[in-house]
Amino acid sequence: MTGVALGALVRVAWRIDRRAVVVLAGFLLAGAVSHGLVGVFLRELTDAATRGLLGPAAVQAVAAGAALAAGVALGRAELALMQELAERMGLAVQEEILALTASLPTIEHLERPAYLDRLRTLREESRELYFAVWALALVAEHALQIGLGVVLLAAVHPLLPLLLGAAVLPSLLVRGRAAARIDAATSSTAETARLELSLSETATSAGAAKDLRLGGAGEVLDAMAGRHWDAVSDELGRARLRAGLLTFAGSATFLAGYVAALAHAAWLAGRGQATAGDVVLVATVGVQFVTQAARLAFHLGSAAAGRHAATRLAWLRAYAAARHQDRGAAAPPPVLRGGITLAGLSFTYPGTSREVLHDLDLHLPAGATVALVGTHGSGKTTLVKLLCGLHRPSRGTILVDGRPLGDLAQDAWQARVGAVFQDHVRFELTAGETVGVGDLPKLRDPAAVAGALERADAGQVVAGLPQGLETELGETFEHGVRLSGGQWQRLALARGSMRTEPLLLVLDEPTAALDAPAESAVFARYAEAAKGHPGAVTLLITHRFPTVRMADLIVVLGEGRIVQCGTHDRLSQIPGPYADLLT
Ligand SMILES: Nc1ncnc2c1ncn2[C@@H]1O[C@H](COP(=O)(O)OP(=O)(O)OP(=O)(O)O)[C@@H](O)[C@H]1O
C-alpha cells in the first residue's frame, strides 16, 4: 500500500511535467557520476605528482576541478528544478485532497472526529508529500553515488567498502525508527491539536467576541488552549529529542567506519599494496561516502515521513472510491408524483453507538407542505440530513416515488434539493454571489438571483446595499458591509430558493433571527408557493406554532420516534404531545 502510495505520487509528478522529471533524472545521473570522477581524477593527480609528471598532474587537476564544478552546478540546477516541481506537486496534492473531500457524497468524514483528525493531519502534511518525492529522487542519486563509490573502493581493496557498508546499514535503520517515532507522536496528538486550534479560533473570532467579552470566558479559553498546546508540544518535543538521539547514534557509526577504512588504506600503502593516489581516493570517496550515506539516511527519513502522509492520502483515495462505488446512478424523477416515503428508517451516527432515529414510517405526499416539530434533540435535523442524502440510513429506506434514494445519483438528487439551515453559512462574497451559490450554474445570473430574492422576500436587504448585488459583504473585505443576523438569514433564505424546480425544499428553522410575525410571513409565502409545485415536498422545521398551522401535515418527533402525525385541526383537538406543545 505504501509503495503504491509513493508510486502514485511519482505518477503525479510525471503527469504534471514529464519533461521536468526526465531532465531531473538526467541531472541526478550526471551529478552522481561527476562526484565519483572527482575521486578518480584526484588519485591520478596524486600518482602523477609523486612520479614527478607535472604535465599529466596539471591535466588531472583541471579535470578534478571541472568535475567538482560540474557537480556543484548540477546540484544547483537540480535544486531549482526540484523546488519548482515540488511546489506544483504540493498544489496538485492539496487540490486533490480538497476535491476528494468535497466530492464525497455524504458528510460522515466531516462529523467524525477520527476522520477529521486524519484529514487535518493530511492537509498539514501535504508539504511532506512532495518533499517525499523529492527525497526519493535524492535517495536514488545518493544510492547511485554510493554504488560508484563502492566500485572505486573495492578496486583498491574489497575490505574497504565492507568496512564503510557495515557502518552505514545500522544507521539507516536507526533513521527509519526516528521518523516512525515522530509520526506516532503526530498521530497521537492530533485530537489535542485539533482541540487547541478550535479553542484558539473561537477565542480570536469576531463572532464569538460578544459572548467571550461579556462572559469573561476569553481568558479561560486561552488557558485551555495553552494547556492543550503545551501537551502537544511536550509530546512532540520528547519524540523529536528521542529521534535526534537515535540520529546522533547513527552518525557516530558512520564516523567509526570512515576512520577504519582510512587506517586500512594507509596500512596497505605502507606495505606497497596501494599507491599514495589510492589513499587520496579512499580519503575523498570515503568522505563523499560518509556524507552521501548520511544524506541517503536523511532523505530516507524524509521519504519515510512522507510515506506515512502518502498512506493517509491513499486512505482518502480508497475511502472516496468506496463511497463513490456504492453510489446510485439513476436520475431523479422530473417531478414527484407520489412523494417521499420513509420505510422502517433508523439511524445511528457513524462512529457512535446511540441510535437517534428509530423505525420511522412516514409518507410525505408530493405537493404537500409538511411541518416537522418536536423538542430539542428529537432528531429533526438528523432526518433532514438523511433526506438530503448527506447521511445514509443505518436501517430501512427512503423511497423517492417508490425508488430507494440510494439508487439515485447523489449529485443529481442534491441538485434538486433546496435547503436553508438554522446554522447557515455567512458566505463573505458579493451579495449576488452569496445568494447565487445556491445554484452554481446560475451563480452570476442576475435574473435568477433577483427571482430568488423575490421568492424569499429578501429584496429589501439588497436594495439597502450601496452597490446592490455587487456589494462586498463581511469583514473579510476591507470595505465589506456588515449585515445584521436577520439580514444574513434573509440572504440565506434567498440562497435556498435559487433552485426553481426542487423536488424537496427544506426550511430547517431558517428564521430564528426574525421576529414571530416575520417568520410567519416567510412560512406563509413558502406554503403558498408550495401550492404551485405539486411535484415537490416542502418541509418546514420550526419551534413556533402559529407557523405550523399552515402545514398540510404535521409530524411530531419525540426522542427519535414519530409520536404524532396529522393536520393541525385534528392534532390540536386530541390530547397528546402536539396539544401539549401548543399550550
Ligand atoms: N454529528 C453528530 N454525531 C453524533 N450525534 C449527533 C450528531 N448530530 C446530532 N447528534 C445527536 O442526534 C440527536 C438528534 O439531533 P438533531 O440535531 O437531529 O435534533 P433536532 O431535533 O434537530 O434538535 P434542535 O431542535 O435542537 O435543532 C441528538 O441527541 C444529538 O445529540
From TrEMBL:
Gene3D superfamilies the record matches: ABC transporter type 1, transmembrane domain, P-loop containing nucleotide triphosphate hydrolases
* Keywords assigned: ATP-binding, Membrane, Nucleotide-binding, Transmembrane, Transmembrane helix
The record places domain ABC transmembrane type-1 at: 22-305
What topology does it adopt in the membrane?
A: Multi-pass membrane protein
Q: Is Magnesium found in the keyword set?
A: no
Subcellular location(s): the record lists:
Cell membrane
**Mind telling me which residue stretches traverse the membrane in this protein?**
21-42, 54-74, 129-148, 154-174, 245-267
ABC transporter domain residues: 340-582
| One Pfam family per UniProt | ABC_tran
Q: Name one GO molecular function term.
A: ATP binding
| UniProt xrefs under PANTHER family | ATP-BINDING CASSETTE SUB-FAMILY B MEMBER 10, MITOCHONDRIAL (PTHR43394:SF1), ATP-DEPENDENT PERMEASE MDL1, MITOCHONDRIAL (PTHR43394)
Protein known as? ATP-binding cassette domain-containing protein
Q: Which organism is it from?
A: Nonomuraea salmonea
